[in-house]
Amino acid sequence: MPIYQGKASKTQLGIMWYRLLGIFASSSAIACTLGLNTGVKAQIIPDNSLGSDRSIVTPNVQQQGNVIERIDGGAIRGSNLFHSFQDFNVSDRQRVYFANPSGIENILGRVTGNQASKIFGTLGVLGGANLYLINPNGIIFGQNARLDISGSFFASTSRGVLFPNGEKFSTQNPQSPPLLTIKQPLGLDSWLPPENTITNSGNLSVGQDLTLLGQNLDLQGQLQAGRNLTLQASDTVKIRDTVNNPFIAAARQQLLAQGNKIDIFALNNPASGLFAGENLLLRSANAIGGNAQFYSNGNFRLEQLNGSGGDLSSTDDPVIRARGDVSFNSYTGASLHIFAGGSVTIDSLNITGPDTTNFINQTVTLSDGVTKVPINGSVTPTVDIRAGTTAINPPGITGEPSDFSPIPNTNGNPSSANITINQIVNQGGLVFLTNQYQPNPALSGDITVTSLLGTYGGVARGGDVVIDSRGKITTPNVLNASAFDFVNFSFANPGGNITLLAQGDIFMPSGSQIVSYGSAGGNITLKSQSAIIQAPATRGNSYIESAGFGSGQGGDVTLNAPLISLSNYVQSNLYAGATGPGGKLIITANSLEANQAELSTFTLGGNAGNVIVNADSIFLNNSKLGSQTISADGGNAGNVEINTKTFTATNGGQVFSQTERVGNGGKITVRATDAIALTGISDGGIFSGFSNVVFPNAQGNGGIIDIQTNSLSLQQGAQIKASTEGFGDAGRIEVNAAKSILIDGAILLSPGNLPPSQVIPSGILSEVLPGSQGTGNIINIKTGQLSVTNGAGISTSTATDYDAGSIFINATQSVSFDGNPGEPFKPSGAFVSTLASATGKGGTLQITAPSLSVTNGAELEALTAGGGNAGNIAVIVKDKVLLAGANTGVFSNTTAGSTGNGGNIFIDPELVEIRDGAIVSVNSQGTGIGGNIRIEATRLTLANQAVISAETASTNGGNISLSLPDYLLLLQNSRVSTNAGNAGAGGNGGNVIIGTNFIVTVPKDNNNITANAFFGRGGNVDITATSLFGIGNQQQGTSGNKITASSEFGVAGTVSINNLDIDPASGLVELPDKPNDPSDRIIASCAATEGNSFTITGRGGLPVDPTTTIRDQTLLSDLRDFTTPQNRNQASKSPPPTPEFIVAATSWRINAQGEIELVAAVPQETSPQQRFNCRHS
Question: Roughly how many angstroms between the first and final C-alpha of the chain, as a whole number?
Fold first, then answer.
């Protein structure tokens, strides 16, 4: 225990807290305690520089039971006492104490000789004064050296100290001390440059400040200060420990180590370390060798001599712990662990390998509660930085000395848990950055890394990167977890995994790259509770990518945040040589926004991974989302699955799946519970929408496009498209929009007069393009309402020997096609086409709906311009079909120069209205046979140059069959025609077969039913009707309305008109009762004009409506009354009916229900006339 037990302040007594870890228990220490005289005396020789104030050494002084050497005398100047010595040494097991006269606060001792001071025993002060020992020749503290000083101790190898008035207390020119008063301990800037080394192997402990100032410091043992500990060298501070003897530097307040060089290696003993109750500062002009544990109850900082950030290096595994902030410029060396209660700021980290001795072996669970990170710096090169934590003593760390009791630090409270690092380089190791490890909830904190090249590992596996932030993460410009073999220049090992978790935003600055390449790509996971934002950058300069180059599978790329905003590439890919399956791209968000981005998987080897997007709202602006195969080895593109409420794509925003070499395209599945809106094209002509493409020379089939939503709109060139230009079939398109589909408009690729090929219509398309050896596929559309307008279209086509796909439209409410914008645009419509030079068949166009309207130049068309046959058109409508407007119509035609046959048209609604130049045609302008038209409707109206045509230029005309239970109405120069040989060539006229109750025209209205020919035989016209009004065959018809079957130079056909002859007596049976004799019931003077009536009552067998014919599908109703008669005579007692005029019909009209009525004007009575009651004379 300290000998001095005089009057001391409570603070001084409180800081007598050091224990020297049992080393005092040596036998020599016991001997000294017992006062045994070893015969070795202290070598302390005063000089004569102080004159009468010369120092006096008194040996063998008894002090509290111990024998000491006491130093008295000296020159007193105010509260300062000056001593001067020729030599100053303390032998082993000796005790030398400076007397502390009353009022003395500072004791200064200088050595003016040329020998170093050797302190091998105990040096102390008999009081609370501070002690300064100055020897420019050096100071050596031996293994058993001790300090018994309750105040401060300052050891220096300077030549002297410079006082504020300019005078010196020097060892080189010894003079009497200056006449001045020193109120405070002398600061470091008061000393002349040190000239020699201070060496320590002992345990030096003082009550207040401990300062060692030398040219070099060579330190072992222990240094402990009740306040500040300062280790300063003009050259080198060297610190070492041993397996058996730890090195401990402990300060209850500030700890400073400063030198031109600092070389610390103190990891041999787990108790070794540098410990500060407040801030710990290492300051050096060069990189600091820091193989040690560092603990600060305040801030930890490395500085250069000018105050800028300092550098740290280590060959082993340094551990830095601070309850405050940690900051330095750079670190190079083995695994690094930092535990900070506050922030961490570092410019660069370069991890060269694992450590040789590791104190930390721990598995950390991240803030998501699921992900676990193993920490072991001796196995894996490791950057382990944990900021804002309340747990700065992790498992495996011994911690501060047991008797270390820092003064409560009220000034070192951290203000944030930020981690800011400019660059990290780690060769195949782990980078773990977190401010979520047992966090201080009072602190906010972001994590920013500018560049992370570090896990680009030589021949080893790429290392993992884990960043877990309570705030924002700003990602590096380059974050690379790849495994590249620089020796063989290949990716021979798997890439590392990258995991970023943030409560705030994850922000990728412009040009930021997050990648993991290897024989297998590493997984990349970004999860934020706020947003993931990729700043705009030049295309391709910013990306997230996992890629496999070998037999391993590709890594998954997972993004999860309420808001995800992307502006460049996000991909999981397989490159050349890769055989494993590709990784998935998984995006989960409330809102996904992609601006000029590409979110995709692709393969040059094995199968590409799937793309899965789950988001309430998805917005693609000039962006692509999908999967493709560019493989020559048969790898397929991945599937694309989108689940959302609303999906919007603009300016070329596109979901795609495509095959470019060998392999099939993937399936695109879109589930949008509310709406899908597709609009516009990009500057390069890429349409917004969904695309599944088989590229030229590709060997593989296109995938399915399957869309389900409530409402779907395609506008300004947006498309849903499946096409093949290679050796594979186009994919199928399935669209199910429960409420509505709007397909509107077309757009020019650039301004000016461009050919139609430069026009991009809005539409749903399936194409077999030139060069393809694959068939088209079906387009299947189900919706409530379908509207196609302003040059938009639904189409399938073939330009090869392979067949085009079919179109099936099923609407629960209505289907409408409207508009023809004019050249260079195409009309609105639905098209199944065989293009020029193609021999493949056109597909079928089938529309099923309650109503259909085709207006203002819109078309339904099954066309062949080549050798393949045109497809068929089937319109199955419950209520009404309306075709209105010039060039409007339903067409299954062949063009001039074609050799394929025309298709058939079948229309089956309740009502058909064709007017204002609209057409239904199966014409053939080529050498193929024209198709047939069959219309089954209750009523058919052709008005204002309406046409139903099955005409040909040189081949046989097609047939037209009209089955119309009510009527056929022809108005205003309308016609039904199966003419053949319109080009002055051969070909027989087709047949016209009409079955109806009435055919009605307006006289002299130029309405025609023709089956004519030029050189061939005229066709047959077969009409079965109850009556024809205003039209007949050419020989007996009304002028201007004709029914003909002629041939210009051939045999005329036949016109057969079969009137329905209905016998009024047919079906009569005997009445069940004998009727009354009417002879006495009829008055001859009762005229028909006076409202009398005649009633026929029959049994069953009559149709429900007397204006209709009996068809096999019509249900017959029995009209007889089978009720039991109650009183047969009551009939004669019934009151007479209200008189009505019976008037002969003289004309007809169409009522509001579209029905024909025979009418006549009621004659006006010229004079009152008495009406007779025919029942009574």
Answer: 157
- The conformational region for residue 1154 under phi > 0 = left, psi -120 to 50 = alpha, else beta, is left
Q: Where are the domains of the chain?
A: 1-227, 1077-1111+1135-1177
Pairing relation of β-strands 531-534 and 557-566?
parallel
- pLDDT tens-digit readout, 720-732: 999 988 898 989 9
What's the length of the chain?
A: 1177
Backbone angles phi, psi at 968, to 5 degrees: -120, 120
Distance CA 910, CA 55 (A): 131
Round the average pLDDT of the chain to a whole number and report it.
83
Whole-number pLDDT of residue 1074: 54
Q: Tokens 């050419």 map to which residue?
A: 1034
The whole-angstrom distance between residue 227's C-alpha and the CA centroid of its chain comes to 55
pLDDT value of position 1147: 52
Res 853 pLDDT > 50: yes
Pair 739, 783: CB distance under 8 Å? yes
Dist. CA 996–CA 976, nearest whole Å = 15
Residue 65: pLDDT band by 50, 70, 90 thresholds? confident
Closest CA to 1009 of 1068, 948, 935, 928: 948
Q: What number does CATH give the domain 1-227?
A: 2.160.20
Q: Rounded to the nearest 5 degrees, what angle is found at the Cα of 1117, between the Cα atoms of 1112 and 1122?
A: 150
- Whether the CB-CB separation of 779 and 758 falls below 8 Å is answered with no
Torsion of CA 1013, 1014, 1017, 1022, to 10 degrees: 20
Q: Under the phi-then-psi rule, with left for phi > 0, alpha for psi from -120 to 50, and beta for the rest, what region is 756? A: alpha
- Candidate ranges 114-123, 287-296, 310-319, 915-924; pick with highest mean pLDDT: 114-123
Is the confidence at residue 559, as pLDDT, over 80? yes
Q: What percent of the chain has pLDDT over 70?
A: 80
On whether the CB atoms of residues 743 and 707 are closer than 8 A, the answer is: no
